[in-house]
Amino acid sequence: MESSxxxxxxxxxxxxxxxxxxxxYSSGTGLRTSRNSMDFACPVTFAGHNRDVCSSxxxxxxxxxxxxxxxxxxxxxxxxxxxxxxxxxxxxxxxTWQAGLTGLPLRAHAAHLNSFEAFPLFAxxxxxxxxxxxxxxxxxxxxxxxxxxxxxxxILYLADKATLRSVVWLAGMVCVVMIFLSGHSHG
Length: 187
What we know:
The chain is mainly alpha-helical. Helix content is 63%, strand content 7%.
C-alpha cells in the first residue's frame, strides 16, 4: 500500500514538472511519454520510485551504455595486437612473455593497461549521469566521443606519438568529466 502511495505521488510530481510529456497509463502505476506511438512505459524502480530509464523511442538502453560495454572490451583489442605482433605468446608464462615485449607489442600492452585505467571513471560517469537525469543525447554524444578518442589514443600509442597521444588522453578525460557533470547541470 505504501509503495502504491509513493508511486502515485511520484507520478503526480512528474506530471507537474513535465505536464505535456507525461500521462498515466492505464494501470496508473507509471508514466508514459506521449511523443510518438513507439513510446512505452519503463517502470524501473530506484529507491522506491518509478523512473523512466528507458529511451523515449523504445530502446531499452541508451547509446552511452553500449559505449560502456565497448570501453570495457577495448583493452582486449590492444592485447590482441600485442599477441599478434609480438613474439610467440606463452600462455603458461604470461608475465614473463609481457616482460619481454619491446617496440609495438610493448606499446600495445601499455595501451591495454591504460584502457583498464580509463574504464572505471567513464563507467561511473555514465551511471551517475543516467541516475541524475542528464540529457541522454548529450551523454550519448560525449560517450561516443570518449570511445572515439580512446580508439585514437590506442592508435597513437601504437604509432609512438607520445605528445599527441597525451592530448587525446586529456580530451577523453574532459569528456568523462562533462558526462559526470551533465546530470548536475540538468534541470
